[in-house]
Amino acid sequence: MIAQTIVRGGGPLEAHSIH
């Protein structure tokens, strides 16, 4: 989950958006 965000070039806030 968080790893996917890092690959996308996002941050912890992005992680919530992905979910």
Average per-residue pLDDT, rounded, comes to 61
Largest sheet: none
Number of contiguous helices = 2
Q: Which structural class matches the secondary elements?
A: mainly alpha
pLDDT < 50 runs, ≥5 residues: none
Rounded Rg: 6 Å
Helix and strand sequence: HH
Kindly estimate the percentage of residues that lie in beta strands according to DSSP.
under 5%
Give the overall silhouette.
globular
Distance between the termini: 8 Å
Instruction: Estimate percent helicity.
Output: over 70%
- For the secondary structure, the number of strands is 0
Task: Kindly describe this structure.
With 19 residues, this protein is an all-alpha fold. 74% of the residues lie in helices and 0% in strands. The protein has 2 helices and no strands. The radius of gyration is 6 Å and the shape is globular.
In short:
By secondary structure, the chain is mainly α. Helix content is 74%, strand content 0%.
Main attributes?
mainly alpha; globular; 19 residues
